[in-house]
Amino acid sequence: NAVYFYGGKISIYDAASFQSIGNDYFSSQGVVYIYDKEVPGLNLNNFVNIGDGYVRNNSNVYFQGKLLTGFDISTLNYLGGNLLKDNQKVYYRGTVIKEASPASFTHFPESYFSKDANNVYNQGRVLPKIDTNSFSIINDTHSKDSNNVYYNTYLLEHLDPDSFTSLGEYGKDDRFVYIRNSRIKCADAASFEPLK
């Protein structure tokens, strides 16, 4: 008996005790691995799967096997969407979002968007020039505030947020049509519809 990963035999695993424990973490003989690399400080007895690649033991937090230094585990708050925070920092995929304010930071479920008192974020990146008070999500790619429309992290210039309609990767208002973050210059907004 043996354990194979992408067609190759992994000799460090004991097949009898091998198990997948979630988020690309595995255990063999009580030792925890990310893929085929042992994660120091983790063992099967103290392993807790938080989600999105985040795990913890009794005193530390890890993202994809990497120790997050300085994390206050007593204030751990998993937000979903690859976001995790404590009382001092907010993390996106294991990297600190320097601009984020943990006290007011929230994540919009089922989207890539989050915000705090000062900024709006998409996948951990600040969206510039957004009015945080009027910000709202249209769908998982489009959002708007009282002044502008956005595709992921891109400002869609000259679009009217009140007349904007999202059409999947496309978006239009009463004057302009965009595909993703690029304007389609010759498109007639009034009659434009994407083909199905």
Verbal overview:
It is built from no helices and 26 strands. Strand 25 and strand 26 form a beta hairpin. The mean pLDDT is 94. The strands form seven sheets. The chain has a four-stranded antiparallel beta sheet, with no helix packed on it. A four-stranded antiparallel beta sheet has the order 7-8-9-10, with no helix packed on it. A four-stranded antiparallel beta sheet has the order 11-12-13-14, with no helix packed on it. It is elongated. It has strands spanning 4-5, 8-9, 19-22, 25-28, 31-34, 37-43, 48-51, 54-56, 61-63, 66-67, 77-80, 83-85, 90-92, 95-96, 106-107, 113-115, 120-122, 125-127, 136-137, 142-144, 149-151, 154-156, 165-167, 170-172, 177-179, 182-183. It is mainly β and 196 residues long. It starts with a strand and ends in a 13-residue tail after the last strand.
Separation of the first and last Cα atoms: 50 Å
Spatial strand arrangement across the major sheet = 3-4-5-6
Structural class: mainly beta
Quaternary structure annotation? single chain
**What is the molecular shape?**
elongated
Low-confidence stretches: none
Radius of gyration, in angstroms, nearest whole number: 22 Å
Topology (SSEs and partners):
Elements: E1 4-5, E2 8-9, E3 19-22, E4 25-28, E5 31-34, E6 37-43, E7 48-51, E8 54-56, E9 61-63, E10 66-67, E11 77-80, E12 83-85, E13 90-92, E14 95-96, E15 106-107, E16 113-115, E17 120-122, E18 125-127, E19 136-137, E20 142-144, E21 149-151, E22 154-156, E23 165-167, E24 170-172, E25 177-179, E26 182-183
Antiparallel strand pairs: 1-2, 3-4, 4-5, 5-6, 7-8, 8-9, 9-10, 11-12, 12-13, 13-14, 15-16, 16-17, 17-18, 19-20, 20-21, 21-22, 23-24, 24-25, 25-26
